[in-house]
From TrEMBL:
This is RRM domain-containing protein. Residues 47-121, 305-379 form the RRM domain. Keywords: Membrane, Phosphoprotein, Repeat, RNA-binding, Transmembrane, Transmembrane helix. GO terms for biological process: mRNA processing.
Length: 504
């Protein structure tokens, strides 16, 4: 059984790397039919069902619509980037029917077949009072995952108000971007329609829970907080929207002015029949959400382009290695270790949105057995004061503003960057074609970082002076450590080349 599981896992990984969607679906179906009966024996029945194989555009409302025929649903937890979800039923019998039906016949959610199994959890953890409709769950907690573009009160109002009348919005940016949105009544409809949706296509994904407060206290109206009940509120003119497969289209309109792309149409408002439209008469159900204006992104008084990073290994981390890790999410201007707080550094990035991306993807990851804590600093610039020597002999301060290794220095460069969370696979490029797998493995050993377990070189033109490919490691922590140490490492065989590693 273990051998078969490993075989299916290997096939799945290879197809995923090659981008074979149909192949992935076939492997998922084979593996499900082969393994589910055994899993039922190993996992005890639970009212919580684990759902896999969801499409990228699925929202909570689609799950409820497809699965409520098995019984009343208490709670749904979306895992959008994994294309999975947890669904808690009121009765054990409902969960039994759901899992059994999924084995015997195809169950489709948002037009794609899904796969079911019992969860190891007996109950989905959620904030206090989330079960009680009378407790005033009219405030939603929004976590914005993969925030490639600015998130302001204008953006969230545009997204949330069509579902119901929004009273107040508060955005906070300490450990990633989160926001609270207050409605006048219980906000189940908004949660169901938006949980798991993308604000912009492929990014700014909403993960929504009920918040603990029952009312928001807003002190001022700006990009980070707004009270729409104030009589002196002056609503801004909002641009006209178009129609596309994401709530606000491909990107904010302000980015198109700088060459990041053209305006894109918007997604229809989630509803029970949005996957069944077949006639042009249904076009009136499409809601055109307006794009935010350029001016609404300027002047984030409470934001900063400086990130504070703590939990750094005192002997193995320095300014260059911080640059190697953080440059995947934005330009790095300066890095400075704080003498008064050991294991802590300030990283000045190109803008506050680069800081948001770094927080989203790097906060809480482990590097050299230490867990990083990445948050927004109260400082708005890194000042080269109190420079001292780190344990490895390097300087505690370094200016990277002029380095050619920054990857967001132009519109062309920025458009080529694929923002990814940490993973066990690294993409390497700009490597001399004469270098061998053994030499790359020896490079890892010499720098005291984990070696890779699989190695793949992409086909290149005969005239190409460099090669690229993939490294696979035992886990993502090993991959992060290798990237931190070897990113931009110079290989002098036979001449000056530079190894660039980035997460695949």
């Amino acid at each position: 059984m273990l051998t078969m599981t490993l075989m299916f896992g290997y096939i799945y990984i290879m197809l995923n790397l090659l981008g074979c969607e149909s192949g992935l679906l076939m492997v998922s179906m084979w593996y499900t039919s082969f393994d589910l009966s055994t899993q039922f024996d190993r996992i005890a029945p639970s009212p919580v069902v684990h759902v896999r194989g969801l499409c990228e555009s699925v929202v909570e409302g689609d799950l409820v619509e497809a699965l409520e025929k098995f019984g009343n649903i208490c709670y749904v937890m979306m895992m959008p980037f994994k294309r999975q979800a947890l669904v808690e039923f009121e009765a054990m019998e409902s969960a039994d029917q759901c899992v059994t039906c999924g084995v015997n016949e195809a169950v489709y959610i948002a037009g794609q077949q899904a796969f079911f199994n019992y969860s190891t959890s007996k109950r989905i953890t959620r904030p206090t009072n989330a079960d009680d409709p009378s407790s005033g769950n009219k405030v939603l907690l929004l976590s914005i995952q993969n925030p490639l573009y600015p998130i302001t009160t204008d953006v969230l109002y545009t997204v949330c108000n069509p579902i119901g009348n929004v009273l107040r919005i508060v955005i906070f940016k300490r450990n990633g971007i989160q926001a609270m949105v207050e409605y006048p009544f219980w906000s189940q409809k908004a949660k169901s329609a938006l949980n798991g949706a993308d604000i912009y296509a492929g990014c700014c994904t909403l993960k929504i829970e009920y918040a603990r407060p029952t009312r928001l206290n807003v002190l001022r109206n700006d990009n980070d907080s707004w009270d729409y009940t104030k009589p002196f509120l002056v609503r801004r003119e909002r641009g006209k929207g178009r129609q596309r497969q994401a709530i606000l289209g491909e990107h904010p309109s302000s980015y198109s002015d700088n060459g990041y792309g053209s305006h894109c149409p918007l997604l229809p408002l989630p509803s029970n029949n949005r996957y069944k439209r077949s006639s042009p008469h249904d076009a009136q159900e499409v809601v055109a959400y307006p794009l935010p204006q350029t001016s609404s992104y300027m002047g984030h008084a409470s934001s900063s382009s400086v990130a504070m990073v703590s939990g750094l290994h005192p002997a193995k981390m320095n300014c260059t290695r911080i640059f190697n890790l953080f440059c995947l999410y934005g330009n790095i201007e300066k890095v400075k270790f704080m003498k008064s707080v050991p294991g802590t550094a300030l990283v000045e990035m190109g803008d506050e949105y680069a800081v948001d991306r770094a927080i989203t993807h790097l906060n809480s990851i482990k590097v050299f057995s230490k867990r990083l804590n990445v948050c927004v600093s109260k400082q708005h610039a890194v000042i080269p004061s109190q420079v001292f020597e780190l344990e490895d002999g390097s300087s505690s301060y370094k200016d990277f503003a002029m380095t050619r290794n920054n990857r967001f220095s132009s519109v062309g460069q920025a458009s080529k960057n694929i923002i990814q969370p940490p993973a066990a696979v690294l993409h390497f490029y700009n490597v001399p074609p004469c270098i061998t797998e053994d030499e790359l493995q020896r490079l890892c050993t010499e720098h005291d970082v984990p070696g890779f377990i699989k190695f793949k070189v992409f086909d290149a033109k005969p005239s190409s002076k460099t090669i690229s490919g993939l490294f696979e490691f035992d886990n993502k922590t090993h991959a992060v450590e290798v990237l931190t140490v070897l990113n931009h490492h110079q290989i002098r065989i036979p001449s000056k080349y530079c190894v660039l590693l980035q997460r695949e």
